[in-house]
Amino acid sequence: MATLNQPFATLLVPYDGSEPSQASLAHALALKDHITTFVVVTVVDETPVISQSATTVTAYDPTPLFEALDEQGRAVLADASARCAAAGVSPVTEIVHDAPVPGILAMMQKHHADLVVMGTHARGGVARTFLGSTTEGLLRSSDVPVLTVRTGEAVVADPFATVLVGIDDSEPSDEAVTFVAGLTRTFGTHVVAAYALDSTSLYENAVSYGFDPVPLLSDMRADGEGIVTRALARASIPAAGATIAVVEGKPASAVLEAAAQNHATAIVVGSHGRRGLRRFFLGSVAESIVRRSDIPVLVVRNRH
Fold it and tell me: What domains can be seen in the chain, in order of their start residue?
């Protein structure tokens, strides 16, 4: 597991002029003092034009449509550059011709991005469970940490002031904690280390078999605190300087509850680094947190 002395050197923002991308750019600019290279890319997807020109009965030259798409892409980047200039940032800008997810992934690799900031729609009710195909696709396939921000979230001057990291006894969890250790060195982050204690089966068995669940629950809490303390120690984060939160409930709900209780400004969670088709499954806990959170969520993929 790599030790991160400076979490971010190159930050990349995919930008298409939409409200979610405007939100992601605004949040990214809040990190400007800690970024060496600021990259803004826009994707020009020519696939629909190519498909249409190949399937129409009467052949036509798609070149004017390609030029119009490029002109639109340049206008989008000009808008992003103006927003960056207003914040005192001179970004590297680039148009990529590809489908959105592979195009963004290619730019991440080309520019050696350390962090990608993506926006999601501010939806309510059932609709908030849909992140958007590009954001979801990137979360499922990126090896680079992805910070998701929701449209309408307030931009704070110190976005990593108080970071809640979800901890369990797993490699993705350790990767997330190691990443947070880098945040503490760069941003002076206060760490809230949260462990989800899912006691549902314990209470159900207590009712079925007629025993007192309190002593076992106490043992489970002690085990959880031990898991958190050891994870912090492996990442060289002093437990005395962190807040340890053992919260009862399903993992995603417990993490979100702990974040609210501790006034976290961001959440960091780990996700499995899988190969082949399995890499497209982000993990139910991480995905649920991203879908439901009202504060930025940074997803760190376990690469090992």
Answer: 1-155 (3.40.50.620), 156-304 (3.40.50.620)
